[in-house]
């Protein structure tokens, strides 16, 4: 069979040499609204970053660091000034990157779109992933885990979280243990209420935050041609995925969005 260029949203072309390549796409969010998303690949650093703004103003970003097997989610949540909240609150969630989660950075760097006005909807909706973030990342040591952490999580110095199971993997890869700090022990945490159930704004609780990557290239597509001996990369498959993070906060007021237990 032949490649069907008319049906491919994006084509893999010969890369231009030089600076990191960027792509802006219009995407449909899970709630039906449309927003703009930017995707950038840096093949020198073997990394991909994605950024989108939710209709409520929250800026969500995702960084995949293939060199260090690290992915970083960041949310910049706008405060409600009339309720006395600060201008924004930043959260960073750092977990292990598996290399089949998203296309390689060198392929991402070659993506171009034929129709920038098109509103894109992911071909595949991947299931919600719930993550229990039980370890804090020491920001000043974060560069030992990934060089991207200092830039991406600069606003979340006291709110950068990861998980014990990912820490175990990184320690085996030789990452220094000084990066990681235990949060209150599991036994104590088990006693902690969800923030939605806590009235006293000074009390610790377990907060939940959800975000979605509305559209990202999750797989390469291969085509066959009579003129070529082997299948060749001819496009991408797009995915959407949602994540829900549970994490400890020392004070209820750091989790004001969590109203519904
Ligand atoms: C983070 O690590 C540095 C260097 O090891 C240490 O001095 C500092 O106390 C740590 N921060 C926290 C909050 O533990
Ligand atoms: C990306 O790579 C360049 C060199 O190619 C380097 O100067 C820069 O610090 C790297 N950035 C990150 C975040 O790794």
From TrEMBL:
Residues 194-259 form the Out at first C-terminal domain. InterPro entries: Oaf (IPR026315), Oaf_C (IPR053897), OAF_N (IPR053894). Transmembrane segments: none annotated. Residues 23-170 form the Out at first protein BRICHOS-like domain. The keyword Signal applies. Pfam families: OAF_C, OAF_N. Residues 1-24 form the signal peptide. Keywords: Signal. PANTHER family: OUT AT FIRST, OUT AT FIRST PROTEIN HOMOLOG. Belongs to the OAF family. This is Out at first protein homolog. It comes from Microcebus murinus (Gray mouse lemur).
